[in-house]
Amino acid sequence: MTARAHELLDGFTRLGAVDTLALLGQWPYRLGAAAAADGLRAHARRLGLQQLWVSHLATLTGFDTRTGNEALRSTCGDDPLFRLFAVVDPGAPEWRRELAWAAREGFTGVRLFPGDHGTSVEALRPVIDEAAALGLTAQIVLRLDDPRVRHPRSPAIDPGIPEVAELVRRAPAHPLVLSGLNRLEWIELGRHLGDDVPSHVLLDLWHVNGPTFVGDTWGDDPGRWVFGSGFPVQAAEPTALQIAAASITDDARRRIAAGNALLLQASLRDTEE
User: Fold this and answer.
1) Residue 150, pLDDT score
2) Which of 12, 20, 35, 85 could form a disulfide with 55 if both were Cys (CB 3.0 to 4.6 A apart)?
3) Do 106 and 84 meet the contact criterion of CB atoms below 8 Å apart?
4) Pairing of strands 137-141, 109-112
5) How many Å is the Cα radius of gyration of the chain?
6) Contact 101, 135 (CB under 8 A)
């Protein structure tokens, strides 16, 4: 990196960011894309992160999701750095039992991967309804990798934006984080919703990075965005640098890096009480 990039990254580390998309385990399509718990801790130290929202990659490729969810709980459950997100497959008959188990075991939220599990977007709605009833954050990971460089044997199929918009329209007013949309897809989603995306819907920025001017627009609606890295499948630095370099106020920068994610968690605790 250039000296300017190092300077910006140093600035990002002082924000105490929350990484809303981190993963434990091995990505099957690239040997180097793997992280054990110590690797996630090193990732947090490198970027000055105060929290990582974590799920296990084995939940995407195994015969069930429980095996990966249990491994996540066993490996990361005692470390306050981590917020555990259970993965459920709406196409599996036991998903309700899995979600109830996760709530009992202290998981913070539920992640859904419709493209990787081969489920329709409409099938996600009962899970989001149940997550709301259980007080869990709902996160939909619409993609983990850029389809332009996706491995040819990957079964992932990116969901359509009209279907995502219909899901948002019909879902309960409960915190919902969308991960993996790019800037144009976010604009398209807004158009399908009459340029009125509900305020409880937040966008993880890992796939939105690009030229600096893209980040400059985030200050227009600073309560909308959260930092997510996709680590170890993706490199965290591009999104971190974009947040640090954006021509936005320091308050907006802090909200995007950490404040919005922390506020979301606080709102769920208030609901439970």
Assistant:
1) 93
2) 85
3) yes
4) parallel
5) 17
6) no
Q: What is the mean pLDDT of each run of 10 residues along the chain (273 residues)?
A: 86 97 97 97 98 98 95 97 98 96 97 96 96 96 93 94 96 94 94 93 91 84 96 95 94 97 86 60
Of 105, 7, 23, the C-alpha closest to 61 is: 23
Q: Determine the distance from the C-alpha atom of residue 22 to the mean position of all C-alpha atoms in its chain, rounded to a whole number.
A: 7
Q: Give yes or no for a contact between 182 and 155, defined as CB atoms under 8 angstroms apart.
A: no
Q: How far apart are CA 42 and CA 39, in angstroms?
A: 5
Question: Which candidate, 75, 2, 14, 3, places its Cα nearest to that of 250?
Answer: 14
Token digits for 85?
């997100």
Residue 23: beta bridge partners? 55
For residue 9 the two structure tokens come to 């990254």
Q: Is 172 helix (H, G, I), strand (E, B) or coil?
A: coil
Q: Strands 18-26, 34-35: parallel, antiparallel or unpaired by DSSP?
A: antiparallel
Residue 109 has what pLDDT?
Answer: 97
User: What distance in Å separates the CA atoms of residue 181 and residue 170, rounded to the nearest whole number?
Assistant: 19
| pTM, full prediction | 0.95
Longest C-alpha distance within the chain, in Å?
A: 53
Name residue 59's amino acid. Answer: T
Q: Are 84 and 76 in contact (CB under 8 A)?
A: yes
Cα-based distances in Å from 264 to 29, 35, 209 = 33, 26, 23
Q: Are 159 and 122 in contact, with CB atoms under 8 Å apart?
A: no
The DSSP-derived string for 57-117 is THHHHSS-SHHHHHHHHHHHTT-TTEEEEEE--TTSTTHHHHHHHHHHTT--EEEE-HHHH
* One-character DSSP codes across 105-152: TT--EEEE-HHHHT--SGGGHHHHHHHHHHT-EEEEE--SS-GGG--T
